[in-house]
Amino acid sequence: MIFLSNLVNGISLGSIYAIIALGYTMVYGIAKMLNFAHGDVIMIGAYIAFCALQYWNVPPLLALLIAMAFCTLLGITIEGLAYRPLRQATSLAVLITAIGMSYLLQNLALLIWGANPKNFPSSMIQIPAISLFGEQLRISGVTLVTILANIVIMILLTSFTMHTKLGKAMRCVSEDRGAAELMGINVNQTISATFAIGSALAAIAGILLCSAYPTLMPTTGSMPGIKAFTAAVFGGIGSIPGAMLGGVLLGVIEILGKAYISTELGDAIVFAVLIIVLLVKPTGLLGKPQREKV
Amino acid sequence: MNSKKRKLIYNAVTFGIVILAFLLCNIFYSDMSRSLRGQLIPICCWIVMAVSLNLVIGISGELSLGHAGFMSIGAFSGIVVSGWLLNGFQMENEILRLIIAIAAGAVIAGIAGVLIGIPVLRLRGDYLAIVTLAFGEIIRNVLNCVYVSADGASLNFGFIDPNLPGTLLLNGPNGAVGVKKIATFTAGFILIIITLIVVLNLINSRTGRAIMATRDNRIAAESVGINVTKYKMIAFVTSAALAGMAGALYGLNYSTLVPAKFKFDQSINVLVFVVLGGIGNTLGSIISATVLTILPELLRSFSNYRMLIYAVLLILMMLLTNTPAAKAFFINLQGHWKKKALRKSIEAEQGKGGTQS
Known about the structure:
Chain A is mainly alpha-helical. Chain A is 71% helix and 3% strand. The radius of gyration of chain B is 23 Å and the shape is globular.
């Protein structure tokens, strides 16, 4: 039973990683850049939701919408101001800009909300815990909501990229930017839309993360950000189902590793698994193999 | 000017600037503020880190995000060796202890470089970057669980288990406490000179040219018989060993040091030095490492806003040096200067012609 409970917790944590990893993987697939500021967008989203609940006393669903709207705007602004001018630049230049953006967001949060950790209100998710197998397995409401949210987002996002015009445009741009432009797709708008979707998902992930682990600081987003990025690579960067699979697996490995191998070495185990997977399958679990042309 | 001569001048200028800076620092030492004086040794360490990372990124063309990991290995092995020599062998000579500690840091970090390089260098591009990041995090996580104590002349190692006989030199997540500070600015200067000799000689050697060939075109390099893995490995391990040296000096400059000090952010900081200094440009790395280490200190009067300003400056600098519009502006400016210089030389020629006739 303890194993099952650990497994459920792992899937829940993994679902949060998966939602964050979606943002990384979509942006990487379409703009070929590592958006290091993504983890900090999560943190900003959580802070906005915190303010909405604590100071403005709005209902939880509205707080979620406010946070999502704010993060969407933030994502579009960051992309337009910092990344769009660097479309032709080397990938390292873009990487450094993204790192600068990450510092900027963290320090803005530090100035606005201070360095003291905030306690994220538990009123965000008010769903009672359920018990299975006669009180032996208790699953908290937050865990349930997280796993459900992950499944819903997965379904919506897959059907969005498969069937809508914008989703198809996104896949085109990630396949071949030049050819997409020739077919009359507005590349800049498509990339903006990707950032918007990724950032809105980041807001959701931030709220779920802080509901499960309620300390909120300006650096809250950085470690989950790195882990989620690892998850995206793990599953094959650029692939949406890959990000989901990678995220969930990573969460399960982390929780089970911490429970059964060593608490101190939890993170090391996660990264070691990533390295082993990449050595066996260099493009990740669901990544497309790259062919080398001479 | 042929390329050999140009390289010679570039190297001479690099060494000259470092030596001049060292002399100036010594002359004006009494005029420096306390905080600036405290920054001197860390600046030396960060310069060595930046130059060594530049070897991997600029010369070998691989993006490494785990450089701070090697630094932490060097730092903690340096601290352990120095503490062991003092406790176990009563070696009071600080200079000798510092030299042995730095050498130990370099060797152990170099060995770690070999062990990590074997799997990492099989990967390419962003995957290689993420794996180096992962290794950096693993090193930090493992160091959090390592306990070392010196009991007389014997060293005891413990993993997760802190119950060891003798004086504890490394205390898991609490790191090293009560380290004898033996790092000196002169040692830092000598370290920079050693690093420059190693790196500049490597770049201008047959090996260096082979490394750059693998960077520019892997397949072409392979087809002329260059063993790509071997040369990438040489660059990676040299860089790791140099980072280990810098780490040992850095560790022996503080009385306490925790593994959490070498988080992923530190690797990123060094990467920023390299990119802002110009990828593949050693002198650029030195200058940007110095300026960017001092900058947050200079911005101290803005207190809360300093990291914000740093971030904005970072973004603006990248935008200014990389957008097409800014690039065109700089090229125009250069063209303008060149035209002026050309006109001047023509006028001078004409003037000469005039006097002759």
